[in-house]
Amino acid sequence: MEIFQASLFSAEQYELGEGAFWWPERAVWCWVDILGHTLYMQDPAGRRSTFHIGEYVSVMVPVAGSGELLLGLQGRVVRFSPEQGLGRMLTVLDGNPGMRCNDGGCDPAGRLWIGTMHLITQHDNGALYCVEGNRPPVIRLAQVSIPNGIVWKGDLMYFTDTATNMIQEYRYDVEKGTVSQPRRAVTVPAELGSPDGMTIDSEGMLWVAHWGGRGVYRWNPVSGELLAHIEIPALQVSSCIFGGPDMQDMLITTAREHMTAEQLQQYPLSGSLFHVKLPYKGLPVNYFKY
């Protein structure tokens, strides 16, 4: 198994760092502190912009031809630009104030797939929605606890419900925007934590942030084999994304949420951001299309 060492990208510590994202048009790294209600952007020179959203913000995806992002907020999806801030709402996913958006991404056809989860109980009461253009959202997977890590490769979609400790593979219909034929692609052993955010490389291998697992792990979704480990000096690793001009850099977020005083003493960099240069390339981001 290959072993990589990540370096510190930012020592600022977030309660629930998440949503790592590379925005190609603006050449900036983006991430959020979900519980801090804040979105961050930083360019390669280290210049950082901070945007206080005012509510839970968990995921961002680019909108084709607009210079804008879609943000997943408490129970709705809203347009955003650094110049104008929050803009027009795209859709409401769940009007229950006890729910919020979690992870999401766009499929190759430009549909938004985004999950919801309960703020407290997180037991089969969330869902994975699909939003096509300006049509109403459709639930594609129900009874989800903690939706995370949605990526596509050809006619396959990979998705994890963190609570299951599994990564599921689905047959993906690009014309209809539906999924079928679920198959367990990866089972994460308990000693490696639980699968959280996920990205995919040009070889079709999955890079998975392991909550409670002190790292990002590279998995083969065909064989279920563990191929590589990026060691992170933080316990709760929450998201990872390829980016940079050659798509070989990776930004990794971590969290301090729910950690004990003893754990924080053992992992004092928890909540910080990390970076690693890899000998693998990520895939370009998919854009939301009307």
TrEMBL record:
Cofactor: Zn(2+)
InterPro entries found in the cross-reference section: 6-blade_b-propeller_TolB-like, SGL, SMP-30
SUPFAM superfamilies: Calcium-dependent phosphotriesterase (SSF63829)
Residue numbers binding a divalent metal cation: 18, 148, 196
Coiled coil: none
Gene Ontology MF terms in the entry: calcium ion binding; gluconolactonase activity
Entry protein name: SMP-30/gluconolactonase/LRE family protein
Keywords: Metal-binding, Zinc
Pfam families tied to this protein: SGL
Source organism superkingdom: Bacteria
Origin species: Chitinophaga solisilvae
Sequence positions that bind substrate: 100, 102
GO biological process terms, semicolon-separated: L-ascorbic acid biosynthetic process
Family affiliation: Belongs to the SMP-30/CGR1 family.
UniProt remark on cofactor binding: Binds 1 divalent metal cation per subunit.
Active site: 196 (proton donor/acceptor)
